[in-house]
Design brief:
Strand content: 15-25%
Strand order of the largest sheet: 2-1-5-6
Order of helices and strands: EHEEHEHEHEH
Helix content: 25-40%
Number of helices: 5
CATH topology: Rossmann fold
Radius of gyration: 14 Å
Number of strands: 6
Largest sheet: 4 strands, parallel
CATH superfamily: Response regulator
Structural class: alpha/beta
Shape: globular
CATH architecture: 3-Layer(aba) Sandwich
Length: 137
């Protein structure tokens, strides 16, 4: 079965929205991770941003219990497709021929309406991705 890895800077906004939408709209496996390292990435229980949680609940998706993960070489190896929602990725990601870069602004600091716009932009790209995967296993 195809496994898609969604990555962004902190694994609390774009990658969580993309994973939630992908999981809801498809039958494929997915995972999400952040590329920040050290104290910049708060691993463990999802700290959430209220606007991300609210706009995802509008899609009947609960991201509030998600776990924050840091990307690893193993995740890259195990994924068939890697969707980078950030330009800043580790070398082991950028060297992979499985990476697709989506130009999506980080919603950090956005109000709810702008977070919704980001979600909707991600949803459109996720729908296109799912369509491209139809017939694949």
């Amino acid at each position: 079965m195809i496994k898609v890895l969604f990555i962004c800077k902190g694994n609390i906004g774009r990658s969580q929205m993309a994973r939630g939408l992908f999981d809801k709209l498809s039958n494929f496996k997915s995972e999400a991770a952040g590329v920040s390292s050290g104290s910049n990435l708060k691993l463990g229980k999802y700290p959430g941003t209220e606007n991300v949680i609210v706009c995802m609940k509008e899609e009947d998706i609960d991201v509030s219990e998600r776990e924050i993960k840091q990307i690893t070489p193993r995740m890259v190896e195990e994924a068939e497709i890697i969707i980078a929602l950030t330009k800043e990725v580790p070398d082991f990601v950028s060297r992979s021929n499985k990476v697709q870069f989506w130009n999506i602004d980080n919603p950090k600091g956005y109000d709810l309406n702008n977070t919704r716009k980001t979600r909707d932009e991600i949803k459109t790209k996720v729908e296109i991705l799912i369509e491209s995967l139809k017939g694949k296993k």
